[in-house]
Design a protein that fits this description.
This is 3-hydroxyacyl-CoA dehydrogenase. This protein is α/β, with parallel strands linked by helices. Helices cover about 45% and strands about 15% of the residues. It is globular. Bound molecules: nicotinamide-adenine-dinucleotide. The site of nicotinamide-adenine-dinucleotide has 26 residues, from helix 1, helix 4 and strand 6.
């Protein structure tokens, strides 16, 4: 297996909320990064997101190098074949098992067979994603938190066939990005989303059933339980479509106590996905 000390280029698949965040922290840590999405418009949007995040961090004196130097390590592409040079790939495409399995089958065919392929899935089975490749032992979950440059934690998810050395590599890479890690077995939602998703859905139901106003649901949880964001604002921040996809997987795997809230489904059907579309439970500029 390719050691972390031999990793120079990190491939990132998906340039959305998480993908461009992962590309940014990898480049900040000194890696060359190739970020791939399906349309050049999405790649450009990801690169713009990185540029403005780096500028914000530089304004706070939070970067060791100037933002331009970090940005120059990142290149965008729509061509998966460019990832042939990667020494490690982190996947962050949409939360859909078939799409991820297709991406992993393609990655296994274009990349060197001794490199680690990691998935940023929130809830899907790492084992099922890995079985689309010929190297399930080198596939691992690297579950970054949103926003990636700010959140300090990364959940390492161990699939049925993930090798011990791959797990060690995953912890070491995340640590090298300045993150702290914990480990979860490959069970639906892992540690974090298994607990977080029912909490968010219960917040949405409480609001929908008139237990409290939107603001008081969030305020009550912030002040009452010392979390930085209440369930409705956190759902908007994550993306309501991402919350719904995750909730549906948990519901399917773990039963009715994970049923998604009706109002969550209605908002996603209306295209109100939270911060990223400007409208969710709250309105954004
Ligand atoms: N949003 C969060 O808070 C959060 C947190 C942790 C993990 N995740 C997980 O990270 C992953 C990405 O979520 P996100 O919020 O960044 O979603 P997003 O919708 O912002 O971005 C997904 C991107 O993947 C791209 N894509 C789709 N198919 C592709 C393909 N075949 N090849 C390359 N790119 C492709 C899309 O064009 C889009 O740009 C999901 O698995 C999600 O569950 C999300």
């Amino acid at each position: 297996m390719r050691e972390l000390s031999a990793v120079e280029t990190v491939g990132v698949v998906g340039a959305g909320t998480m993908g461009h965040g992962i590309a940014q922290v990898a480049a900040t840590a000194g890696y060359d990064v190739t970020m791939r999405d399906v349309e050049s418009e999405y790649v450009d949007r990801g690169l713009e997101g990185i540029a403005s995040s780096l500028d914000r961090l530089a304004a706070k004196d939070a970067l060791a190098e100037d933002p331009e130097t970090i940005r120059s390590r990142i290149s965008g592409t729509t061509d998966l074949a460019v990832l042939a040079d990667a020494d490690l790939v982190v996947e962050a495409v949409i939360e859909d098992l078939e799409v991820k399995r297709e991406v992993f089958a393609d990655l296994a065919s274009v990349t060197d067979d001794d490199i680690v392929l990691a998935t940023n899935t929130s809830t899907l089975s790492v084992t099922s994603i890995a079985s689309a490749t010929d190297r399930a032992d080198r596939v691992v979950g690297l579950h970054f938190m949103n926003p990636v440059p700010v959140m300090e934690g990364v959940e390492v998810v161990v699939g049925e066939r993930t090798a011990d050395e791959t797990v060690v590599f995953a912890h070491a890479f995340a640590t090298d990005l300045g993150k702290e890690t914990w480990e979860s077995d490959d069970k639906p939602g892992f540690v974090t989303n298994r607990i977080l998703m029912p909490w968010i859905n219960e917040g949405i139901r409480a609001y929908d059933e008139g237990v409290a106003t939107r603001d008081d649901v969030d305020r009550g949880m912030r002040l009452g339980t010392n979390v930085p964001m209440g369930p409705l604002e956190l759902a908007d921040h994550i993306g309501l479509d991402v919350v719904l996809d995750a909730s549906e997987t948990l519901h399917e795997e773990l039963g009715d106590r994970y049923k998604p809230a009706y109002l969550l489904k209605r908002k996603v059907a209306a295209g109100d996905l939270g911060k990223k579309t400007g409208e969710g439970f709250y309105a954004y500029e």
